[in-house]
Every structure is written in structure tokens, then in C-alpha cells.
Amino acid sequence: MPALNSNLASMPADYLFQEVAQRVTAYGQVHPDYPVISLSIGDVTRPLPPVVSKAMADAAMEMSTPEGFRGYGPACGYEFLRSGVAKNVYEPRGVQVDADEVFISDGAKTDTSALQELLGPEARVAVTDPVYPVYVDSNALAGRAGEYRSGLWSNIEYLPCVKENGFVPPLPQHYVDAIYLCFPNNPTGVSLSLNELQRYVDWAVQNGALIFYDAAYSHFITSAEVPHSIYECRGARECAIECGSFSKMAGFTGMRCGWTVVPRTLYGGTINRMWKRRLAAKSNGVSYPVQRAAEAVFTPAGKEHCRLNIEYYKNNARMIRNELRKSGLEVYGGVDAPYVWVRTPGGVSGWTFFDHLLEQAQVAGTPGEGFGPSGAGYLRLTAFNTAENTQEAVRRICAAL
Ligand code: MLT
């Protein structure tokens, strides 16, 4: 027997969305006449903007000519997309991000799971609870999380986000080297105001810690007081790395493209150099046609199409929130985010409510426990299905209560 990676071999349970998918598939096998509507994994349903598909097709055709053919691309991403992100995502918000601080990848999941590679083996991290499981799993796989007991890892500091604190995490009680924040939040759908986010930046600057900021849902923000980027906070260029994604913003979950901003001002450029070196060691970049497609998201037609798609999903979120509230459920989030966080009726567990809705309503959500102990008694619903399916799912949920 080879010496296997014990961190990987001892990972608890299945990855959350695999577990949910298995239960839905098992139900479908026994009840093929009752199709399940999924409001579970946050996967988009609106088609790509035509201008994006055309850019991808044109780039693929370009590759079939001697002049247009390209081999390995730059590990950090093509300059046209790095500057496209800086100019179109950050400049309009009055935030300083230069093209050489933007690193293109195949998505925020890849990058948020890789951020821990910047840290030493003895580093301690803090995460919100509930949390997108990738931040925790990636640290556990690196052997940094300690022991897993009752749903918590002993070396990770958890910042509970509960109804009593408005789902806003407290500051860490002890020194940590890095804190993961995701706002608008997955899974609670709650966002932070600029003043609220500034507290974490101030804390990180004072304590010499890093913030790993996942801004994958920033394009869903419409509330004026909510920052779209952590770099809108004073001092964030001294402490924060931000990940962004074309997935939810432009329908790229199947295309795969995202970015990470690593400011040169972080520790005199050390972190920017480290990230670049890591990419050189591990990546040959994202394919040229996909990067050209992502660039086309920033054309006027691309922007307008994405704006309409996001509005469509936000309408779904509004429908879920309003109808479930009318039925007497406690519902949070879903205003500046595509996720709605639903308190289970009678305080039953998220898995019990999940099973009930699967059996009685043929609707799948994601149980809150899957995101951490403070998710107990909640179910997450996403706004990413079609309007028709969302309406039908909500009708069925209300009838099954
Ligand atoms: C989710 O459902 O939480 C997301 O789709 C996961 C992801 O973006 O990887």
C-alpha cells in the first residue's frame, strides 16, 4: 500500500453538494414520475449572452489559422482580460486595481481553495459559520485544520453568524493569520455595509492578518450602502486578497473563468510575487477562447445581457422571500444575493426539512448544517432556477408546510 495522503483519506463525509445530489437522485430513481425542482446548488440557468458565445467561437476559429494559433497562454491570464477586469470591475467603483494585480483562473472555487497555499503549515485561519465548505476543506486537506469533532475543526476559529447578530460575524477572539469572508454571503444571502466591512479591514491591518475576500456575488448588489469590493474600504490594499468570478455574473459556471486580485501593496509585493510563482508552478492558464468570451462580457451588449439575467434571478429571490414569508416562514438574505436563508418550521434540523420537502413537495434545497453547526435549523434556497420553476417550487413548498 502506498503512503496515502491521510488528510484527504480522513476527510469527513461527502462534499455537501454531492450528498444533496445523491439524495435527489435516489428519490428520482424510486419516484420517476415526480420530477424534483432543484433550488439547491447555486448553478445558473440563463443562457450566455450571444456576444460572449460569438467571441468564444471566433477565438476557436482564430486558433485554426496559422496566424491565430496559440499554444500555452500566460499562467496569470492574457493581458486583455487582466486589464479588462481592472477597467470594468474596479475602475467604475473608484477603486485602484492595476492589471498586473489581477490573476485570471478557471473560477473562484479554484482560487479560494488555493489561497491557503500562501500560508505556512502552522498558520491559523478563521471562517464564518455557516461557511462555503471550500474554505474549510482546503485547509483540512493541507493538514492545517486539526481534528474534526462534532462538525468543527479544532484549529479553525469559527465566527458564528446567527439570527441574534444579524448573521454578521464577530471579530476573531484570538490571533489568526487569515480570515475568510464572503459577502454577499454564501449561504445566508446577507450582505455587509461599508462600515461593517471596514471593521474587519481595520482589525486585519492592526493585527497583521490577511483577509481572503470572496466577492463572487458582488454583481447582485443593488443596496447603496453595500460595497461591491473590499477595496472600497480604507486600508484594504494592505491586508486583503479578493476573488471574483464570471460564473454567477455572466453564466460561466460551465465555462469556468474567474480572477483573484493580489495587490502589490501587500507586504511590499511579497504576496503578489508568491501568487505569481504559485501559478507558474501549477497552471498553464485558462483557454484562450474562454478568456476571449470573458472579455466579451464587458462589451455594452454583454453588460446589458448580464444585467438583465441578474435582474431575472433577483426577481426569483424576491418571489421566494415574499411568498415564504406570507406562509409564515422566517426568511433572511436574498436582497443583494441569489441565496435565501430559511428558518425551518418548528426548529427541525435542516436535513429533516430537506427530506420533508423532497418527499412532499419534490423540491430540493441545501440543509444549513452542511455549511457548519450554526447553519442548523436552516435551509438555503437559490434563485438560479427559471422563473417558472421557482414559482412552482415556492407553491409546492407553501402547500407542504
Ligand atoms: C453553491 O451552491 O454554493 C455554489 O454554487 C457553489 C460554487 O459556486 O462552487
Explain what the structure shows.
With 401 residues, the chain is α/β, with parallel strands linked by helices. The chain folds into two domains: 13-42 and 302-400, Alpha-Beta Complex (Aspartate Aminotransferase, domain 1), CATH 3.90.1150.10; 53-299, Aspartate Aminotransferase, domain 2 (3-Layer(aba) Sandwich), CATH 3.40.640. It is 38% helix and 14% strand. The protein has 13 helices and 15 strands. It has helices spanning 6-9, 16-30, 50-62, 79-90, 108-114, 133-141, 194-207, 247-250, 270-282, 288-296, 300-326, 350-361, 387-400; strands spanning 37-38, 102-105, 125-129, 148-149, 152-153, 156-160, 178-182, 210-214, 240-245, 258-261, 331-333, 339-343, 363-364, 366-367, 378-382. The strands form four sheets. The protein has a seven-stranded mixed beta sheet with strand order 2-10-9-8-7-3-6, with helices on both faces. The chain has a four-stranded antiparallel beta sheet with strand order 11-12-15-14. Strands 1-13 form a two-stranded parallel sheet. α4 (79-90) packs parallel to α10 and α11 (300-326) runs parallel beside α13. The structure holds D-malate. D-malate binds at residues 41-43, 109, 132, 186. D-malate is lined by residues 41-43, 109, 132, 186.
Task: Map the helices and strands.
Elements (H helix, E strand, L loop, with lengths): L5 H4 L6 H15 L6 E2 L11 H13 L16 H12 L11 E4 L2 H7 L10 E5 L3 H9 L6 E2 L2 E2 L2 E5 L17 E5 L11 H14 L2 E5 L25 E6 L1 H4 L7 E4 L8 H13 L5 H9 L3 H27 L4 E3 L5 E5 L6 H12 L1 E2 L1 E2 L10 E5 L4 H14 L1
Parallel strand pairs: 1-13, 3-6, 3-7, 7-8, 8-9
Antiparallel strand pairs: 2-10, 4-5, 9-10, 11-12, 12-15, 14-15
Helix pairs in contact: 3-10, 4-10, 5-6, 11-13, 12-13
